[in-house]
Amino acid sequence: MNPSAMIYHTSRKRYEAVESMVCVLHEPSFEEAVRVFLGGGVAGGRWSVPEPVDARLAIVSLPVRHVDVGIARRVLMALLEGRRLRVRYQSASTGSDGWRELVPAGLAWDGQRWHVRAWCGSREEWRDFVLGRMAAANWPGEAAGDLPKDKDWNTFVTVKLRLNPELSKERREALRMDYGLRGEILELRVRSSMKAYLLASMWIDQDSHMGLPRHFVVG
User: Fold this and answer.
1) Domain assignment of residue 89, yes or no
2) pLDDT at 219
3) Which DSSP letter does residue 143 get?
4) 91 domain-assigned
5) Nearest CA-CA partner of 73 in 108, 116, 120
6) Rounded to an integer, what distance in angstroms lies between the CA atom of residue 112 and that of residue 17?
7) What is the pLDDT of residues 190-204, one digit of tens each?
8) Residues 119 and 60 in one domain
9) Where are the alpha helices (DSSP H) in 2-110?
10) How far is CA 214 from CA 127, 150, 208, 210, 217, in A?
11) Which domain holds residue 94?
């Protein structure tokens, strides 16, 4: 399947790969090589370094967004069965804390935390709720029945990001290499309801949550 991919060294008594060797059974990734040779791995959606730590590998351990397993179970059951669910939700953006009647319809991962896409009976609209900010949840109740269509969730948009023209030619070329671009535009397809999270993760202020007060300060 891969002729001439390896040669046999008689003095070392082993086969070794040649420069022209390519993978034919799967598409390789750099992370796979790191995991095999240096011991790094992905746990809970994050890279981790097992003990003993290889001196050639370093990982920035970001804070873990905690999720209550019991609450997550109720949310998932309500989502799978289309049932109403009462949750106590604590909002970081408004500071409100109270019970809400939700109908979970989708789950979304923004790279750092889980969001629950749900119909909010209190406000009578589709909204996003951070799963880790649910302080309590009752057992799923009655079936929700027919609900309005969630246009933002069902609509996909293409976000076009242009390399900053104020950067020097050399810096733009470095970013093109970093993101695998051939031109100046990076196109990303995302659900309309998730666009703000995408822009926030890319440190773009417009239409994102970056205008809100930061959760932490250094000091």
Assistant:
1) yes
2) 67
3) B
4) yes
5) 116
6) 38
7) 999 999 888 888 877
8) no
9) 30-38, 69-81
10) 22, 30, 13, 8, 7
11) 69-149
